[in-house]
Design goal:
Chain B: Keywords: Oxidoreductase. Chain B: It comes from Prosthecochloris ethylica. The complex is a heterotrimer of chains A (about 575), B (about 280) and C (about 350). Chain A is of the alpha/beta class. In chain A, about 35% of the residues lie in helices and about 20% in strands. Among the domains of chain A are: about 235-345, Succinate dehydrogenase/fumarate reductase flavoprotein, catalytic domain (Flavocytochrome C3, Chain A, domain 1, Alpha-Beta Complex), CATH 3.90.700; about 415-525, Fumarate reductase/succinate dehydrogenase flavoprotein-like, C-terminal domain (Methane Monooxygenase Hydroxylase, Chain G, domain 1, Up-down Bundle). With about 280 residues, chain B is an alpha/beta fold. In chain B, the strands form two sheets. A four-stranded parallel beta sheet of chain B has the order 2-1-3-4, sandwiched between helices. In chain B, strands 6-5-7-8 form a four-stranded parallel beta sheet, with helices on both faces. The chains are: A alpha/beta (about 575), B alpha/beta (about 280), C alpha+beta (about 350). Chains in contact: A-C, B-C.
């Protein structure tokens, strides 16, 4: 069988844009998208807020440079400045291209694409479609991929990257419908599998499957992961479920209120108030709670997000999904009463190390979107930059892979390599005397990460976290898959996802332990200030002999000098 | 005596004449008087709306305006007429421009649509205005020997945004009425499902599959008969029954009664008086 | 505030099970678990999978009502498990405290609560459920289209669709014929049709009016009533029909001819002339073949609709005709102005 020119792993915004752009670059290529779910189910759909671009529709004086500066400042100067330049200068083009192929952007009175203010941005430049922006973008991209005849392998779970010397030659994946382990020989592979923040489990807003599969597979195949310690906590997760109330709620004028009835953000970000950058708002809320100004409830302490003063009409027309979610999952109608919220693990800044063309250090392997770390977000991502990143860098990775696919003829993936993987899967199903429940381990992983490698970190806590993860990995060896069926074995799939989360949790904790400073989302109470002299650099984490080994990489600078980050 | 402006449905004027005939027999027994509106024109079924929304509004504004002229609520015995006229009313009530446009034309015959008359179904009148207790007290021949499968029909339930009486997916009014008449109601999945009427002439095979499923379940659940408040459902379930069941390779059959006939039976009228002999399946 | 204990209750979930490798046919397993008030059906299923029986299989992803993975039938109605509160379902149980959970209907069954979504994707392709931009690809990214708020509103609600397939599971006609286009696809098709950026409106329309297309909908409104995003799906279906008649005339499909017959009759008599409806919809051949066998019985029962001359016109028909015609000329005037 002929090898694929490109196999994209993941069918979210980054993966679909990559596939679409690759087809545009060279229509004769043989391109496949592998996804463990139907692409239109991907977590891109959950991004409600919008995507930043200096279109200047709303603020005529907005510029790409201002967007670059906001991004770099927001990143606490850990973003690579060449990457941020690419992100922001491509932004207007991407937004318009999406418009050109049917994305239903909300509109302004002059019929141009509407833009609204978003946290950490100097101008209102966030383009949106009501509060379903990610959903409509994902639909549009999926529709266009169907139109272009992209070949989809839906409900395939990728197990490993197959390599030949120092380069990749394809993937091994399980067809969930049949349980069959299949090889996908490929000239190029693009990982676009999304983030890994679900390892925080109940304290995460992510989809159940955001287990960082691509990162874990790349990592085990020897590709380094970058800046894994940076996990963004979104300030406003619903108290009970961790589900997200988008920043749009604050963008439209919502207040954060403590038990004293104060808009406490005036103590932390007097100018931007509720629209300060996410890390700052999350820490502020956590501080309010830790200092006893949070509300009590059986599900834990929380703070109020008050929208009642906005009025029923505005809430119904601009924030219908937020209202629906508070009612479905929290039993609260935001028109009537404030929404109980607390910070929730939301986004992973770290990921597979790539350059600004989407290349990883391994030849033939590429990555894009939340799975990758270019890095445009550095230590903290701005609201409205995540959708933007998956689109811009999904497109770039697709283009690069299409250009470079012809350079290599991969060898066959051997039968024995496939069989080894099959054998590994069978091992999980073998009865043994003592066994562990994967659900329990998964929950415990989330609890220890939130407590020890969460918003506020310090050496002793992280040590505890590292020990817990080690213990969980030992127990994981006793996890048993009870479903022995070949057809749609979600029991097996969830166990494999847990394995990926455990491997990645180690890299998050390792990075957090090493980085003895506070920067962006990473706050060390024992090292409360940013330390540019020793830590203005990326961490790289490589898998060697079953262990996470830390290295480093310099930050690419440009015209913006290091400054203190205040809002 | 409670009075109503009674809307004459095309189908009850032509094919299912027994509906209005039986209603007329017993209306006074329950203290009801249905004033026939001979000026009624066809509501447009579920078709006129998308052929010409404006004509749709005009036609039904006129129908309602005649009821308003009598100072009475408009009542119909047909589900689709109910939904259609209510949809038009909703649109007219929500749009002053449409109302003005239509009224400018209706002025020709001295009519005006004001929005003062409600548009209701016979079933609603029975349950809400007469009341189940009153009906129970008037029953002469309780239907106690009968297991009855209620078949609501879609357009008395859905869309709930226009109809909004019964729960659109778990209705109960017809069940309650059956019980008030002394019958035993059968709870079956298809009671709130579709009969397939509206695609009968366009996709007959599909329509009859839809009908056959409902008939089969009622037969399986050992119903003595099906009762429906909609003459269109009746036309499929009765008129097309043998064809539908043949298509589904089912040999049994089941009688289908109109709501007005079932009430008539319990009030002591004979099947012949009520026109039940006119049914295809007897 | 103060602490309060959430209400707890033992609830049985009667889950449809089917593993094609070992089972000849589906069966039900009962799982009785303690449930706290405020918990969704999906969380209950997760609990069953994690703590009671890991072999229970269902799809779930975002758990927040936006990805559309966990569509299933709960107490007989298709909905998302993640947005359905257990407490709300308890009121709807046929057997007290037993919640029935089954897979969606009308799509091939794979295992337990999982059905094959490929037929939906295939239909998205068949009916070109995408915008084929009027802008050449080489120009893309340079300029945005200008789109009015009114146009945006035309597809705002339909772009809420998350393709959960609840509507397909509830559809009466899809149940009768799996070839039928299905509600979600009609919704999406109409959303594309009203998008001014799209250039293949006519091609899509030509497909929609064919057999198994838009005219096969039987107006049962189940799709709309069960839509998890409360999208008025029937508006889209009517929208397609309205456009089909306006653009393609009324002669090219039986559905359109059927609809037009209503207009004709009302204009003439104020009443439907049912006797000739089949002929006008499907032609003489079809009518003889399909209805003649039934006609005999109908005549015997005096159930045949009266022939056209005997259909009595409504009272005041003359005035009514004037009004009807006046509306016709108004509409024509408007259309002319609109074209200008």
């Amino acid at each position: 069988m002929k090898p694929f020119d490109i196999v994209v792993v993941g069918g979210g915004g980054a993966g679909l844009y990559a596939a679409m752009e690759a087809m545009k670059t060279n229509p004769s290529l043989n391109i496949a998208v592998l996804s463990k779910i139907y692409p239109n189910r991907s977590h891109t759909s959950a991004a409600q807020g919008g995507a930043n671009a200096a279109l200047g529709n709303k603020a005529k004086d907005d510029t790409v440079d201002m967007h670059v500066f906001d991004t770099i400042k927001g990143s606490d100067y850990l973003a690579d400045q060449d990457a941020a330049e690419v992100l922001c200068s491509e932004a207007p083009k991407i937004i318009r291209e999406l418009d050109n192929i049917g994305t239903p952007w909300s509109r302004m009175d002059d019929n141009t694409i509407a833009q609204r203010p978003f946290g950490g941005a100097g101008r209102p430049r966030c383009c949106y479609c009501a509060d379903k922006t990610g959903h409509t973008i994902l639909q549009t991209l999926y529709e266009q991929c169907l139109r272009k005849g992209v070949f989809f392998f839906n409900e395939y779970f990728v197990l490993s990257l197959s390599t030949e010397g120092s380069r990749s030659k394809g993937l091994i994946a399980m067809n969930l419908r049949t349980g069959k382990v299949e090889a996908f020989r490929a000239r190029t592979v693009i990982f676009a599998t999304g983030g890994y923040a679900k390892m925080y489990w109940n304290r995460s807003s992510n989809a159940a499957g955001n287990s960082g599969d691509g990162q874990a597979i790349a990592y085990r195949a020897g590709i380094p992961l970058k800046d894994m310690e940076f996990v963004q906590f979104h300030p406003t997760g619903l108290r009970k479920s961790g589900l997200l109330v988008t920043e749009g709620a604050r963008g439209e004028g919502g207040y954060l209120i403590n038990t004293k009835g104060e808009r406490f953000m005036n103590r932390y970000a007097p100018e931007k108030m509720e629209l300060g950058p996410r890390d700052l708002v999350s820490r502020s809320i956590e501080t309010e709670i830790l200092e006893g100004r949070g509300f009590d409830s059986p599900a834990g302490q929380y703070i109020n997000l008050d929208l009642t003063h906005l009025g029923a009409d505005l809430i119904k027309s601009r924030l219908p999904q937020i209202r629906e979610m508070s009612m479905y999952f929290e039993g609260v109608d935001p028109i009537e009463e404030p929404i109980p919220i607390r910070p929730t693990a939301h986004y992973s800044m770290g990921g597979i190390d790539t350059d600004i063309y989407g290349r990883t250090p391994m030849e033939g392997a590429y990555a894009a979107g939340e799975a990758a770390c270019v890095s445009v977000h550095g230590a903290n991502r701005l609201g409205g930059n995540s959708l933007l990143e998956i689109l811009v860098f999904g497109r770039i990775a697709g283009h690069t892979a299409a250009e470079e696919a012809g350079r290599f003829e991969p060898g066959e993936i051997s039968r024995s390599e496939i069989e080894a993987v099959e054998q590994e899967l069978r091992e999980y199903m073998k009865p043994s005397g003592h066994y562990e429940r994967y659900g329990t381990l998964r929950e415990e992983l989330g609890v220890t990460l939130a407590a020890n490698v969460g918003i506020f970190r310090e050496a002793s806590k992280i040590e505890k976290g590292i020990a817990d993860i080690k213990g969980l990995k030992e127990r994981f060896a006793h996890v048993r898959v009870f479903d022995t069926s070949d057809v749609f074995n979600t029991n097996l799939m969830q166990v494999l996802e847990l394995r990926n989360m455990l491997d990645l949790a180690e890299t998050v904790a390792a990075g957090a332990y090493a980085r003895e400073e506070s920067r962006g989302s990473h706050t060390r109470t024992d090292f409360p200030v940013r330390d540019d002299e020793n830590w203005h650099k990326h961490t790289l984490c490589t898998y060697e002999n079953g262990k996470a080994v830390l290295g480093e990489k310099p930050v690419t600078m440009g015209k913006y000098e290091l400054q203190e980050r205040t809002y | 005596m409670k009075r109503y402006a009674y809307y004459l449905s095309c189908i009850n004027e032509a094919m299912t004449k027994e509906v209005d005939r039986s209603l007329e027999l017993w209306q006074h027994d329950l203290g009801l008087e249905f004033v026939r509106m001979h000026e009624s024109v066809c509501c447009g079924g579920s078709n006129l709306d998308y052929v010409s929304p404006k004509h749709f509004a005009l036609v039904n504004a006129r129908n309602i305006a005649y009821a308003e002229k009598l100072g009475l609520d408009l009542v119909t015995s047909c589900n689709t007429c109910l939904l259609t006229i209510r949809s038009a009313k909703k649109r007219l009530d929500e749009s002053p421009e449409l109302r003005d446009e239509v009224n400018a034309i209706l002025k020709k015959e001295g009519l005006e649509y004001k929005g003062t008359s409600e548009v209701r179904h016979l079933l609603w009148v029975l349950v809400e205005d007469v009341g189940l207790d009153e009906i129970r007290s008037k029953v002469k021949v309780p239907l106690e020997n009968y297991s009855i499968a209620p078949f609501y029909g879609c357009h008395i339930l859905r869309p709930s945004t226009v109809l909004g009486k019964d729960n659109p997916l778990e209705p109960s009014s017809l069940d309650q009425l059956i019980e008030a008449l002394g019958g035993r109601t059968i709870d079956y999945d298809h009671k709130n499902k579709c009969c397939g009427f509206h695609t009968l002439l366009v996709a007959e095979e599909e329509s009859l599959n839809v009908a056959a499923e409902a008939l089969e379940e009622a037969i399986e659940r050992k119903a003595d008969f099906i009762v429906t408040p909609c003459p269109l459902c009746h036309t499929v379930l009765d008129g097309y029954q043998s064809k539908a069941l043949k298509q589904a390779s089912v040999t049994a059959s089941i009688p289908v009664f109109h709501l007005s006939e079932m009430v008539g039976l319990a009030l002591g009228y004979t099947p012949r008086q009520l026109g039940i002999k006119r049914h295809i399946v007897t | 505030m103060g602490e309060h204990k959430e209400e707890m209750r033992d609830v049985t979930f009667r889950v449809l099970r089917f593993n094609p490798q070992v089972d000849n046919k589906p069966y039900f397993d009962d799982y009785t678990i303690p449930v706290e008030k405020g918990i969704t059906v999906l969380r209950a299923l997760n609990y069953i999978k994690e703590q009671v029986d890991p072999t229970v299989s269902f799809r779930a992803f975002c758990q927040a009502g936006i990805c559309g993975s966990c569509g299933m039938r709960i107490n007989g109605i298709s909905k998302l498990a993640c947005t359905t509160q257990v407490w709300d379902e308890l009121e709807k149980c046929k057997v007290p405290d037993v919640i029935k959970v089954e897979p969606l209907r009308n799509m091939p069954h794979i295992k337990d609560l999982i059905v094959d979504m490929d037929p939906m994707v295939d239909k998205m392709k068949k009916y070109s459920n995408w915008v084929e931009s009027t802008m050449p690809e080489s120009k893309m990214g340079e300029k945005e289209f200008l789109i009015s708020e009114e146009e945006f509103k035309e597809y705002d609600k339909s772009t809420d669709c998350i393709l959960c397939a609840s509507c397909m599971s509830e559809c009466s006609i899809l149940r009768a014929n799996k070839e039928y286009v299905a509600p979600a696809i009609l919704l999406k098709s109409h959303r594309m049709n009203v998008d001014s950026r799209d250039g293949i409106h006519d091609k899509r329309m030509a497909e929609l009016v064919k057999d198994h297309g838009v005219w096969d909908c039987t107006h049962c409104y189940r799709c709309q009533e069960t839509c998890v995003k409360s999208i008025p799906i029937m508006d889209a279906i009517h929208g397609i029909r309205e456009e089909a008649i306006a653009e393609r005339g009324v002669r090219d499909t039986s559905g359109a001819r059927h609809a037009e017959a209503f207009m004709e009759d009302i204009a003439k008599k104020g009443k439907l002339v049912e006797a000739t409806l089949p002929v006008r919809t499907n032609g003489l051949g079809w009518t003889l073949k399909n209805l003649l066998p039934m006609a005999f019985k109908m005549v015997m029962k005096r159930r045949t609709p009266p022939p056209p001359p005997l259909v009595k016109a409504s009272k005041g028909i003359r005035k009514f005709r004037e009004e009807f015609n006046e509306m016709t000329s108004r509409v024509k005037r408007e259309q002319k102005d609109h074209k200008k």
